[in-house]
Amino acid sequence: MKLNIAVLPGDGIGPEVTAEAVKVLKAIAMEFNHVFTFDYGLIGASAIDKDGIPLPDTSLELCKKADAILFGAIGEPKYDNDPYAKIRPEQGLLKLRKELDLFTNIRPVIAYEDLLNNSPLKRKYIKDVNICIYRELTGGIYFGDKKVSEDGNNASDICEYSRFEIERIAHMAFKAAQSRKQKLTLIDKANVLESSRLWRKVVKELASQYPDVTLDFLFIDNAAMQVITNPKQFDVILTENMFGDIISEEASVIVGSIGLLASASIGDTHAMFEPIHGTYTTARNKGIANPIAAILSAAMLLDHFGLYDEASLVREGVDKALKLHITTPDLNTKYDNISTSKVGDFIEDFINNPDETNLN
Ligand code: IPM
Hints:
- By secondary structure, this protein is of the alpha/beta class.
- The chain has helices at 14-32, 45-51, 57-65, 77-80, 89-99, 123-126, 163-178, 194-207, 220-229, 241-255, 292-304, 308-323, 340-352; strands at residues 2-10, 35-40, 68-73, 104-110, 130-136, 146-148, 155-157, 183-188, 214-219, 236-239, 262-266, 271-275.
- The chain has 13 helices and twelve strands.
- β11 (262-266) and β12 form a beta hairpin.
- α1 (14-32) packs parallel to α13 (340-352), α9 runs parallel beside α10 and α11 (292-304) packs antiparallel against α12 (308-323).
- The longest helix is centred in the first third of the chain and has 19 residues, at 14-32.
- Homodimer.
């Protein structure tokens, strides 16, 4: 298969972890006789530094033309701490999601047997957890009208959803549940928010088309507690943009490190793959950033194109790395000197030679 992949490494540790994902995809291409090409573009703070804007047209065009996009991370503390900044790195990512209509963000949360002790949560609660979060990505409060009064003392962000926006992701989440444990949980705040009541109404209506799926509902405040006190109850979670952002980051506690969580952002015509972690700028260029979330995002890219054997091989490589403690320091495992690129090298070697790869 020929795939033209746009690579937007972004800021902070983005370039380091993305390099390992590209390394792994190149190994897969070699092993399975695919032709993957990689074209790089700027986004975020690095684009602002060079071009004054967070998503230059060249990067957007690159992504529009590509079969898939591999994205790193975005953000810089100097913007986080400056409420007056009008141009911000995150605007680049939000614009990209909107322009490409990447409305469904899929975030798997899978507890690895070998890492159960890395989580601050008790083993018995997290063993065998396998949740898939469907987060709406192009609507809600992130994209509603924003206003600041002239004197700067009032501000508002509107949270708005349409039936159409809810239906299209809900269908995807129901279908995912059908192929998993047939359970879908909608997380909302329908006791308070009109937009949440619309979600509940629309999702309830669609449920009749998926009689094999059990649908239940949780308010976000309750869900925030349940996701770490009883995560095994969940199969597929469906939720709106901001609740999904927060609940998925919370769920990473189950897995032991946010450096392990991958995601796919899917629309009707484009698809982007990115780790859910941020830029972790204090780790930049130290070789300590965990590349596994980026590598697992590359596996999701392979799945997206039906390259299931290829994706499985990447995941087997990740499993073996975790089993042999070939991991970065965030996982506090046996060795303290395994760098970002060493993890990538190991998985690359595994792909080239699955039966013989060991730590050397
Ligand atoms: C994420 C990030 C983004 C979001 C930021 C960087 C805009 O936190 O992908 O989860 O809030 O969606």
